[in-house]
Amino acid sequence: MRKLIIAIDCDDVLIDSSARIVERYNAKYGTSIDASHMYREDLDWGAGSHEAAIERMNTLLEEDRILDSLIPSEETISAVRALASQHELHLVTGRQTYLEPSTRALLDTYFSGCFTSIEHTNYIASAASLEPRRSKGEVCAQLRADILIDDHVSHGKSVLSHGVREVLLFGDYAWNKTDDDIPGITRCHNWQEVLQNVETIGSEI
Ligand SMILES: [Mg+2]
């Protein structure tokens, strides 16, 4: 099997971030957001505007250090290590650049030596943010990625339009339910299915 270049998302792929973020957001701001609201740009999360919601989110992530307390499952750790032993892995996250210390700490603690690079794309950034927002398509094209593993359908479509061969849509989440059969996107409910699909893709290239 050829050594593949695989881009892997961080939140809700390596760790279960959204459930914890929503829980803490509701506790802090007295809202009743649920996971189906994740990534809905037409919702204001009870903050008055989408922009204000992003500011609240940034405050929450900075003050509560939520992302630093999340631990990957044993299944995730062993699957990523297995992939890293055969392929070239890159972490491609929608996180903003200011969260890089948290991202690096996660990788250093649980996935040491597994990733060749870490790319922060600033997907959910406020209009005032000075950090450049890059699409995952753009980043994966630069990396010459063969595969993206991500929980977000729009990132999947983005990379397919930039020449990535396959997307493994990870997990069964409220925000990634789709009845559409999108060529190039294969849903994987767990890491075992990811490993099987990577093996199949590798044998076909
Ligand atoms: Mg994600």
SSE topology sketch:
Layout: E1 5-8, H1 17-29, H2 50-64, H3 74-86, E2 88-93, H4 100-110, E3 115-120, H5 136-143, E4 147-150, H6 153-160, E5 166-170, E6 185-188, H7 191-204
Parallel strand pairs: 1-2, 1-4, 2-3, 4-5, 5-6
The structure holds magnesium ion (MG).
Residues 9, 11-13, 150-152 line the site of magnesium ion.
Notes on the protein architecture:
This protein is about 40% helix and about 15% strand. With about 200 residues, the protein is of the alpha/beta class. It has a six-stranded parallel β-sheet with strand order 3-2-1-4-5-6, sandwiched between helices. It is globular. The model has no long low-confidence stretch (mean pLDDT about 95). Bound molecules: magnesium ion. Magnesium ion binds near residues 9, 11, 150 and 151.
